[in-house]
Amino acid sequence: MTNRLDRVSTLTIQRVTAALVILIVAFWFLAGIWFFEFSSLYLVFIIVTILVVRSVPVQPGVWLGRRPVRRGLVGVITLALVLGSLSPYGPNGVGAVPFLSLILALCFILLGRATKRVASAPDAMVDEREESLRNRAHRIAYMIFAALAAGTILVAYVATADSRAWLDNSLKFGTPFITFFLLLFFLPAMVLAWLEPDRPSSELAPRLPATRGARLAMSMVAVALLLPIALTLALPFAPLRTTMKIVAEPEQTTAAMSCKYFEARTRAGFGYGAVIPISAEACWDGHKAFENWGLNQSDCHSFGSEGTIGSTITCSRTTDADGTLHFLYRVRLRSAILPFVFKDVAMTLILARDGRVVAFP
Amino acid sequence: MAAREDRSRTSAESPKLYNRIAVLRAERNLSRQELAEAVGVNFQTIGYIERGEYNPSLDLAFRFAELFDLPIEAIFSRQPFRPLSEEIYRRPRAAGEGPNK
Known about the structure:
The structure holds 2 protein chains of 2 kinds.
Chain A: H1 2-9, H2 13-30, H3 37-54, H4 61-64, H5 67-86, H6 97-114, H7 128-158, H8 161-173, H9 175-195, H10 212-234, E1 241-248, E2 258-268, E3 273-284, E4 289-293, E5 303-306, E6 308-319, E7 325-335, E8 342-351, E9 357-359
Antiparallel strand pairs in A: 1-2, 2-3, 3-4, 3-5, 6-7, 7-8, 8-9
Helix pairs in contact in A: 3-6, 3-10, 5-6, 5-9, 6-9, 7-8, 7-9
Chain B: H1 2-6, E1 18-19, H2 21-27, H3 32-39, H4 43-50, H5 58-68, H6 72-75, E2 76-77, H7 84-94
Antiparallel strand pairs in B: 1-2
Helix pairs in contact in B: 3-4
C-alpha cells in the first residue's frame, strides 16, 4: 500500500508538465514542423526560455498585480490562440504561427508572473489559501476545457461540410490541437488570473533582488522577443542564395528535338523567409522552345515559408515570335510579423529555340 | 438582509468568519510579513484573512491562537465582533461595574 502511495506521489505537477511539454514538442515535430528549421529551433528556445523564467521566483508587482491587466493578458492569449487555430499551417508554410508562438510565450511568462505561478505550483510552494485557489482554478479550467473540446468537435462535425473539412484539416496539420494542448497547460493560470481580486496596495510584495538566474531569464526573454524582429527586418537585405542545376535529358532527345531538366531553388531571408523553387523540363526543336512539364500556373509556389506569407505577383509562360520560351515567376514574401516588410523574388527561365539558356534562374 | 450578510460567501465558498487578526497584529506591533512568517503562510493570505475574504483552516486558526496566546473563539467568530473598546468599557458600565463609575 505504501509503495503504491509512493508511486502516486511521484506524479508531481512538474513531472506531468514536463511530460506534456515533451508530448507537445513531439507532436509538433510529427506534425511536420521539423521541416521548418528556424521555427523548430525557435520553438525549442522558447520552451527553454519558459523553463528558465519559471525557475526564477517572482512577485507580480504593482502593474501586473492589477486585475484589469491580468484579464487583459487572458484576452490577448485567447485572441492569439484563436488566430493560431485559424492560421494557415502546413507543408507550404507556417505563416504567422511563429509570431503567435512568440506572443503566447511572452503572455504566458507575464501571466505566470502575474499569478505567482500558483496554478502550477507544487504543494510545498503554496500556503493553504493558494492551494485552495489553485485547486478551484483547476476545477473551473477542467470544465471550460471539456466544454471547449467537446463543443468544438461536436459543432465542427455536425455544422457544415466546410466545418467538417476544417476538422479533418486540423487533425492533419494540428494548429487547433496545439491550441488545445496549450490550453491544457495554461487554462488554470488564465482562470486564476481572471478570478483573483485586486490586492490592496499595502499588500504588494517588496521587489525581489535581481539574481544571476533572473538576469539570464530576462536576457533570454529579450532574445526571444528581438530575434524574430531582427530577422524580419533583415528579410529585404539578406542576399538571395540560389542553387541550380541543368541536366540534359537524353531519354527525351530525338532527332527532331532535345530537352533539358532545369532545377533551381532560391532561399530568401535568414530564418524568416521562404524557398522559391523551379523544377521543370523544357525542350527545343530549332524552331521554338517549349515547356514539357513544370512551367505552369500550378508550379508557381513557394515552400518552407517561415514568418512570411508568399503571394504571387507574376506567373507567366510565353513564347515570343522568334521561338524563345520565357517563364517568369515573381513572388512577394511579406513578413507575417511586420506586414510592411517584404521582399520580391523573381525566378526566370529564358530558353532560346536553339537550346541556348539565356537566363536561369 | 442580515441573514444574507451572514451567509455571504468567501472565495473559499464557506460562510464568512469574522476575526480580530488586524487588531491583535496591531496590538503586538507585527507587520503582515512578520505575522505570515510566524504562522507559515504567504503575507498576502494574512490580508485576505483580515478582510474576511478567506477562512483559515482549523490548523491555521490554532496557529494564530497559539501565537496570540488566546482561545480560538477570541480571534474568530461566526458573528461580527463588537469593538474591543466597547467590550472593555461599555459592558461593565451597563452592568454597573465599569471602571469609570
